[in-house]
Write a structure and sequence with these properties.
heterodimer, A: about 350 residues, alpha+beta, Cytochrome-c3 Hydrogenase, chain B, 3-stranded antiparallel sheet, 15 helices, B: about 140 residues, alpha/beta, Beta Polymerase, domain 2, 5-stranded mixed sheet, two-stranded parallel ribbon, 3 helices
């Protein structure tokens, strides 16, 4: 006899509201229905009623974890529309901050995954590493969540403490390589919970349009930083970790290796950053037209479409977040899985409901 | 990439690709949407998203953004009587994308059910369209 369990919208495993209605036969999941509308704020509608400067502040509030990459992508689209060239120093600062944000996001995710697995000590280890990154972001921007670093045409703050950034990047790289990777990779509990769980084949990942670490854990190689470079990624040397198993463990491995690469990117960027202006003075006029911009957010490809009618208010802003495409893929991952693994499999795509509902 | 572009041009007589810094753009007729999706999926393309914008005529302009080996192909179509064929059977990635567009603009995707995704059960589809689409003067607030 089958039965249905409603999980959420409020539940202990996730910090955001989402309802997963699971239909089971015994302990095996037969079907899943997802409801994600609880954070709907109509951000696109609001963006079409604010001027470009106001919209930068608005899109920063789409998400509390990857706020910086939202403003980066929106500003990039507007800069393309207005034909603006961003100074090289500003591009380097953008790259450093967006990689710090990736580190903050991935360590948060790793900690939550450890918590879901039931490994409290690992959760604390992840958050101890994360705290160094958060302190650095606070030093650089004055904020721990919405950094307010990007503006149309550049960045709002210069990066003065290069040595401090280098020290944190090196410390985090050592902590990830020396502690987090061995703990996640060698611990029997982690392997038992993650290996072979929540499988997603390469074909499924492509058909459902998976992005980011979720896609790269299933053998897809695309990373927007590599395939369609923005900021200064084309000048930097970094690897794109790809796994083929397509299970939760593969998603863990991809994110941990990405953290090491993010540290390498930050170290290179700090050392290569030239002197110069960080933004252009004066107001920006945006002519009539349309432009798109894509970037690699911590959870995957982030897409912005901006259309202008020549006024100071955008006439259309479309935001496609990585979680919007990765969350529906939880359904094929869950069908056939054990009921006890539902929270872990759901968490493995690093879902952000705030991004999804907007 | 070139092959895909040539095939797509073949279903859009008289049209040509427009080059922009972020990708290429092509106008396609609404009746060719399913054909376009089939060709894209066969070629290993990934549907990034679909952008809908209201037109003064009461119809909607839909841009299908596809990723082909890191290159962005933007195929533009226009609804006919507020509807376009759905492509979910061809491309599962379009499922939530079509539901969201239906919620926001009330665009109908023929051939599928359209339960609400972002709205509550009793909300009417098309919350961004119609009288809600009216905007204040430039620079003002609602």
């Amino acid at each position: 006899m089958s039965y249905t369990i409603p999980i959420g919208p409020y539940h202990p495993a996730l910090e955001e509201p989402c309802k997963i209605q699971v239909t089971c036969e015994g302990e095996t999941v037969q079907d899943v229905a997802l409801s994600v509308q609880y954070n709907f704020r109509g951000v696109e509608w609001l963006a079409e009623r604010r001027n470009y400067q106001q919209t930068v502040a608005l899109v920063e509030r789409v998400c509390g974890i990857c706020s910086n990459v939202h403003t980066l992508t929106f500003c990039t689209a507007v800069e393309r529309l207005a034909g603006l060239t961003v100074s090289e120093r500003a591009q380097y600062i953008r790259t450093i901050v967006v990689e710090l944000e990736r580190l903050a996001s991935h360590t948060l995710w790793a900690g939550i995954a450890a918590e879901v697995i039931g490994f409290q000590a690992l959760f604390m280890t992840c958050f101890a590493v994360r705290e160094q990154i958060m302190d650095l972001l606070e030093n650089l921007s004055g904020n721990r969540v919405h950094y307010g670093m990007n503006c149309i045409g550049g960045v709002t703050r210069d990066l003065e403490d290069s040595e401090g950034v280098l020290t944190v990047a090196r410390n985090v790289r050592q902590a990830v390589s020396g502690r987090l990777i061995p703990l996640f990779a060698n611990d029997k509990t982690v392997r038992a919970r993650c290996a072979g769980t929540g499988k997603l084949s390469r074909e499924q990942a492509l058909a459902w349009g998976a992005v980011g670490p979720t896609a790269r854990a299933s053998g897809l190689t695309e990373d927007i930083r590599r395939t369609s470079p923005y900021a200064v990624y084309a000048k930097l040397d970094f690897e794109v970790p790809v796994e083929t198993a397509g299970d939760v463990f593969a998603r863990v491995v991809v994110r941990l290796l990405e953290m090491v690469e993010s540290c390498r990117i930050i170290e290179q960027a700090v050392e290569a950053m030239p002197p110069g202006l960080i933004h252009r003075p004066g107001f920006v006029e945006v002519p009539r037209g349309e432009a798109v911009a894509r970037s690699e957010a911590p959870r995957g490809e982030l897409f912005y479409y901006v259309a202008s009618d020549g006024t100071d208010v955008p006439c259309r802003v479309k935001i496609r977040t990585p979680s919007f495409v990765n969350i529906p893929i939880v359904r094929p991952m869950l069908i056939g899985a054990n009921l006890a693994d539902v929270a872990l499999i759901n968490a493995s795509v690093d879902p952000c409901y705030s991004c999804t509902s907007r | 990439m070139d092959k895909i572009e040539k095939i797509l041009i073949s279903i859009c007589p008289g049209k040509f690709w427009e080059e922009k810094p972020e990708g290429r753009w092509l106008e396609i007729p609404c009746i060719a949407v399913e054909k376009m999706a089939g060709m894209m999926i066969e070629a290993g393309a990934r549907l990034v998203t679909v952008t809908a914008s209201p037109l003064d005529t009461g119809e909607f302009r839909l841009i299908y953004h596809w990723d082909v080996d890191g290159n962005l192909l933007n195929c533009v179509s226009t609804t006919s009587r507020g509807a376009l064929p759905d492509i979910v059977q061809i491309c599962p990635a379009a499922d939530w994308i079509e539901l969201e567009i239906h919620d926001y603009y009330g665009v109908n995707f023929t051939g599928r059910d359209l339960p609400s995704l972002m709205l509550n059960e009793h909300d009417r589809a098309g919350i961004f369209a119609g009288r809600f689409q009216r905007k204040p003067k430039a620079g003002g607030r609602p």
